[in-house]
Amino acid sequence: MLFLFLSGMSIFLKNVKLLTRVKNMEPQKQNDGVRYKLANAMKECMRTAPVEKITVKEIVETCGLTRQTFYRNFQDKYDLINWYFDKILLESFEHMGEGRTVYESLVNKFEYIQMEQLFFRAAFKNDQQNCLRDHDFELIQEFYTKQIESRTGRKISTELQFELEMYCLGSVYMTVQWVLGYRKCTPEELAHALTESMSVRLREVFQKLGLI
Q1: pLDDT at 8
Q2: Angle CA(74)–CA(77)–CA(82) in degrees, nearest 5?
Q3: So what's the pLDDT on residue 161?
Q4: CA–CA gap between residue 110 and residue 106 (Å, rounded)
Q5: Residue 154, pLDDT score
Q6: Whose C-alpha in 4, 15, 63, 123 is 20 to 30 A from the C-alpha of 191?
Q7: What's the pLDDT at 27?
Q8: CA 64 to CA 59: how far, in whole Å?
Q9: pLDDT, averaged in runs of 10, over the chain (212 residues)
Q10: Predicted pLDDT of residue 29
Q11: What is the 3-state secondary structure (H, E, C) of the chain?
């Protein structure tokens, strides 16, 4: 009887935890819905004015929300840009993961960036502390590291990690230059240039793993 009681209590507590988790997720979904609405309004404003000229008043009027709602979710318009940048950056890496090779992955990422170019450009342009570039670097380094380690079944060597970090830093820099309009080329051309610029050892590893 005691065993049945304890088993029943265990199941009950698990169900309570599950319900609590679901309830806690609901406000987060609602908040994200409001934030996406504000982000879309920001995008509309960015079509006709530079970021520095856009006011919170214009953003909320575009989407029919209040200033109080805006400030419950963001500190200022740059906080909004950074939040949405993080969302679309992660989305770009999901597209990148659909590619079978480094080239295909980069083309997928750059085509997605091109669709959200207004926000990427605004985010990089106003990234005075390089926080967004660092975030992009961390994600792309993690992406390639996982690709290598999952295919080899072992941890990446210190030497290869060093070369990968150098490649990823250069890749992020060239991507930012492209987004800001300093480098004129198509997503395919940029992907090809970055694929061809790998170090000899890194290229050999990617070739052996079928990633090039």
Answers
A1: 44
A2: 75
A3: 96
A4: 6
A5: 94
A6: 123
A7: 52
A8: 9
A9: 41 42 50 92 91 94 96 93 88 86 93 90 81 88 93 94 96 95 96 95 93 87
A10: 58
A11: CHHHHHHHHHHHHHHHHHHHHHHHHHHHHHHHHHHHHHHHHHHHHHCCCCHHHCCHHHHHHHHCCCHHHHHHHCCCHHHHHHHHHHHHHHHHHHHHCCCCCHHHHHHHHHHHHHHCHHHHHHHHHCCCCCHHHHHHHHHHHHHHHHHHHHHHCCCCCHHHHHHHHHHHHHHHHHHHHHHCCCCCCCHHHHHHHHHHCCCHHHHHHHHHCCCC
Q: How far apart are CA 88 and CA 35, in angstroms?
A: 13
Please count the residues of the chain.
Answer: 212
- Compute the distance between CA of residue 180 and CA of residue 174 in angstroms, rounded to an integer: 10
- pLDDT at position 122 is 85
* Rounded CA separation 136/109 (Å): 12
pLDDT at 124: 87
User: Distance (Å, rounded) from C-alpha 176 to C-alpha 135?
Assistant: 13
CB 91 within 8 A of CB 119: no
| Per-residue pLDDT at 193 | 97
Tokens for 77?
Answer: 């318009």
What pTM did the predictor assign?
0.76
Say if residues 209 and 147 touch (Cβ distance below 8 Å).
yes
